[in-house]
Amino acid sequence: QVQLVESGGGLVQPGESLKLSCIGSGFIFSNYFMRWHRQAPGKEREMVASMSTTGYRADYSDSVKGRFTISRDNTKKAVYLQMNNLQPEDTAVYYCHARYPGTNTGHWGQGTQVTVSS
């Protein structure tokens, strides 16, 4: 059974940090690109960070570049998203996504809520 389980969301004030974690099971984690997406109320889901299978390459959306860092540990089947200097516009449900390279095959987590408010 394929699973991606996110954790680490919560309520923080502007300027604070959070680290999200996502643990995969039921598939060969190291063969998949790992991504973090987010969806704010009333908005489309957007990808904010992506990492290649070995962790060699990371890409970010312009909205989070310089503030968020994606990392992965294939031995733990885990991907992380370190979020610094959080702002109210970062409020969203954050989803972990595994995508097999060159295909549309992928798996989604259930999401974790991040709320940034003073």
Q: How many angstroms separate the termini?
A: 40 Å
Percent of residues in helices: under 10%
Structural class by SSE content: mainly beta
Rg: 13 Å
Query: How large is the share of residues in beta strands?
Result: over 45%
Q: What is the averaged pLDDT score? A: 96
Sketch the topology as an H/E string, one letter per element: EEEEEEEEEEE
List unreliable stretches of 5+ residues: none
Describe the structure.
With 118 residues, this protein is mostly beta strands. Helix content is 0%, strand content 51%. Strands 2, 4, 5, 6, 9, 10 and 11 form a 7-stranded mixed beta sheet that branches. The radius of gyration is 13 Å and the shape is globular. The termini are far apart.
Nutshell version of this structure?
The chain is mainly β and 118 residues long.
Question: What's the SSE blueprint?
Answer:
Blueprint (H helix, E strand, L loop, with lengths): L2 E5 L2 E3 L5 E8 L7 E7 L6 E6 L6 E3 L7 E6 L4 E6 L8 E8 L6 E3 L3 E5 L2
Parallel strand pairs: 2-11
Antiparallel strand pairs: 1-3, 3-8, 4-5, 4-9, 5-6, 7-8, 9-10, 9-11
